């Protein structure tokens, strides 16, 4: 079979690069949207973003609050390729006009954003770090993106583990796994809000208790999903299980929307202390306490999963079913129980990914798991779906690609790049980096 010509892919890459010069910077729009609750406390719906004309880059968000249309205009210090594209230099709304310096300062305090992202100069009386070689700036910026990518990789890696466990034992993809992440994110946001009202939001043990409860709740959801739907379709050799998964996904989305509305939930940030790691006087590499906690949690969950798969009866049963379901049944393995437990473990991992989204990124709603679920599936395929190490490797790779594209090119096109990467792997290495080629059987 002839291989596609390389110039066609080079042409595609050129087209993608040309597209980066147009459209609204979605990261600027996301930063601007986080400021809306400072002016409207009610549910926010129908948010539309547009780039306004002018010498300085500006994003205007038009939204509805309590049935009334409002807008907020955020002006930034740079565009897609500029270093200052995250610096907010002015804010205006339809009711207040352009904010005064005092109002702008209060907005910075309310949003808990450092001056570098809100456009305020540092305290002139504070000692400034000694200026180092300016050649270190690009390297420090690169290092900052690696730190940022680690958190994204944790989200994709945890959810990709859920996909790969189910696929490894059934050979089928559960497209409703992203909605389990959405449930985990929504329930985490509600639990953290309840802790805040009880005055326990700053207690790490209380937050850990919420995380454990959410993972247990979503594990039950995964177990129930298999018992009520997929177990009845176990021996159906058609696309019926895939269609059923799509139906489950839509049902979860609409059910959550009807129960809790379409509003975004913004949990109060926890462990948000910022630590300066390196600086050359012009650029400072920083990391949040929460980023370190997320890395430790992901590593701990991965180590626990490895121990379960290698040292427990369930792990041995899972490996046996993944090798040959019929042979596993012949030697006495309870296949139905093993598969249901796999769905429960996958649901718990998906909930952990949702908790990271809620506590670190915020802004969760009934639609949170849709795109994240497809990206995690892409990560699982790139790493080798069916391979547990491959799921984490694929999540890390996708997180790096997405973050670095957002840092150096137009963030609005990061999804095109992510799914373009998936397409290339499906063409040239369909079994992924660490997956097994099952095309000829064993």
TrEMBL record:
<keyword id="KW-1133">Transmembrane helix</keyword>
<comment type="similarity">
    <text>Belongs to the binding-protein-dependent transport system permease family. LivHM subfamily.</text>
</comment>
<feature type="transmembrane region" description="Helical">
    <location>
        <begin position="343"/>
        <end position="364"/>
    </location>
</feature>
<keyword id="KW-1003">Cell membrane</keyword>
<protein>
    <submittedName>
        <fullName>Branched-chain amino acid transport system permease protein</fullName>
    </submittedName>
</protein>
<feature type="transmembrane region" description="Helical">
    <location>
        <begin position="283"/>
        <end position="309"/>
    </location>
</feature>
<feature type="transmembrane region" description="Helical">
    <location>
        <begin position="149"/>
        <end position="170"/>
    </location>
</feature>
<feature type="transmembrane region" description="Helical">
    <location>
        <begin position="376"/>
        <end position="401"/>
    </location>
</feature>
<keyword id="KW-0029">Amino-acid transport</keyword>
<keyword id="KW-0812">Transmembrane</keyword>
<keyword id="KW-0997">Cell inner membrane</keyword>
<keyword id="KW-0472">Membrane</keyword>
<feature type="signal peptide">
    <location>
        <begin position="1"/>
        <end position="29"/>
    </location>
</feature>
<dbReference type="InterPro" id="IPR001851">
    <property type="entry name" value="ABC_transp_permease"/>
</dbReference>
<feature type="transmembrane region" description="Helical">
    <location>
        <begin position="407"/>
        <end position="428"/>
    </location>
</feature>
<dbReference type="InterPro" id="IPR052157">
    <property type="entry name" value="BCAA_transport_permease"/>
</dbReference>
<keyword id="KW-0813">Transport</keyword>
<dbReference type="Pfam" id="PF02653">
    <property type="entry name" value="BPD_transp_2"/>
</dbReference>
<keyword id="KW-0732">Signal</keyword>
């Amino acid at each position: 079979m002839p291989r596609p010509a390389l110039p066609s892919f080079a042409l595609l890459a050129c087209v993608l690069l040309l597209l980066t010069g147009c459209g609204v910077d979605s990261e600027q729009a996301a930063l601007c949207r986080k400021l809306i609750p400072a002016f409207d406390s009610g549910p926010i719906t129908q948010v539309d973003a547009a780039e306004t004309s002018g010498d300085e880059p500006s994003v205007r968000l038009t939204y509805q609050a309590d049935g009334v249309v409002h807008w907020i205009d955020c002006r930034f210090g740079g565009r897609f390729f500029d270093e200052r594209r995250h610096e907010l230099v002015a804010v205006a709304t339809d009711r207040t006009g352009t904010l005064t310096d005092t109002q702008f300062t209060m907005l910075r305090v309310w949003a808990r954003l450092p001056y570098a992202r809100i456009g305020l100069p540092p305290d002139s009386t504070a000692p400034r770090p000694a200026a180092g070689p300016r050649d270190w700036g690009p390297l420090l910026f690169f290092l900052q993106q690696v730190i940022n990518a680690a958190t994204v990789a944790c989200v994709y890696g945890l959810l990709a583990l859920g996909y790969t466990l189910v696929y490894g034992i059934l050979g089928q993809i559960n497209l409703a796994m992203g909605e389990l992440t959405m449930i985990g994110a929504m329930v985490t946001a509600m639990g953290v809000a309840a802790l805040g009202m009880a005055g326990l939001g700053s207690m790490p043990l209380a937050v850990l208790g919420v995380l454990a409860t959410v993972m247990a709740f979503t594990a039950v959801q995964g177990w129930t999903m298999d018992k009520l739907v997929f177990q009845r379709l176990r021996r159906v050799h058609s696309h019926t299980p895939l269609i059923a998964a799509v139906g489950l996904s839509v049902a979860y989305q609409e059910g959550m929307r009807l129960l809790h509305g379409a509003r975004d939930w913004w949990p109060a940030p926890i462990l948000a202390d910022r630590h300066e790691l390196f600086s050359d006087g012009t650029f400072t590499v920083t990391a949040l306490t929460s980023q370190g906690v997320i890395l430790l949690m992901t590593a701990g969950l991965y180590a626990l999963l490895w121990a379960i798969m290698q040292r427990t009866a369930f792990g041995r049963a899972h490996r046996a079913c993944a090798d040959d379901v019929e042979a596993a049944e012949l030697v006495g393995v309870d296949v139905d129980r093993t598969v249901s437990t796999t769905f429960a473990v996958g649901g718990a991992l998906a909930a952990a990914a949702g908790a990271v989204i809620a506590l670190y990124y915020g802004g969760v709603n009934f639609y949170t798991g849709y795109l994240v679920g497809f990206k995690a599936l892409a990560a699982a395929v790139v790493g080798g779906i069916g391979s547990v190490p491959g799921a984490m490797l694929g999540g890390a790779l996708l997180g790096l690609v997405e973050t670095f594209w957002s840092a150096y090119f137009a963030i609005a096109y990061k999804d095109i790049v992510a799914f373009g990467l998936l397409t290339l792997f499906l063409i040239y290495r369909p079994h992924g980096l660490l997956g097994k080629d099952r095309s000829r059987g064993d």
